[in-house]
Amino acid sequence: AKNASSKTGVRPALILAIMQQETGFGSNFGGCNLRNGTTGDGIYIQSGNPSIRNMVPGNFDSFVKITSSLGMDWKTTPISCVYIQPNGIPYGYGGAMGYTQFIPNSWMGVEARVRNYLGISASNPWNPQHAVMATAIFLQDKGAANQTYTAEYKAACGYYGSCSSYASSVMTKAMSIQLDINLLSN
Description:
Blueprint lengths: L1 H7 L3 H12 L8 E3 L7 E3 L5 E2 L8 H10 L13 E2 L5 E2 L12 H15 L9 H14 L7 H12 L4 H21 L1
Antiparallel strand pairs: 1-2, 2-3, 4-5
Helix pairs in contact: 1-5, 2-5, 2-7, 3-4, 4-5, 5-6, 6-7
């Protein structure tokens, strides 16, 4: 995160807060697999039961390109599931991937800079170093390098795609992580 910060100006604590929020630092990459790129439908990994809206169909080509370039099978690569509201109605789509849960088209928008900043030939959202750099770049593009609470909050909203309790949760995590960084730095 310090390396990513040095390239982008985004605070390491904010970058790590996104990773903690999205996957618990890599403990949960997603519970679904995509089976149909046209509809976005698939299965829940644990049960094998059908799942819907695992990915916006417009992201399918990017997802296949990313997984194929890494030698992965898109049908067995874990992605996030659609959120099912308490009333049983799905909200939005799943389809986020890797340590910091990038949507495939968003990953394609930052991956060349990830490769450039890290000096690598292929970027991988399931590699924590690559995901951290991609997150820093994405947050930089959303204004987080200004390092004010307002700028970081808005960048967190942009990362998620809307302002909600998500950004507040990220900012709380960032504050806690910053305290740990300060303690460790001393």
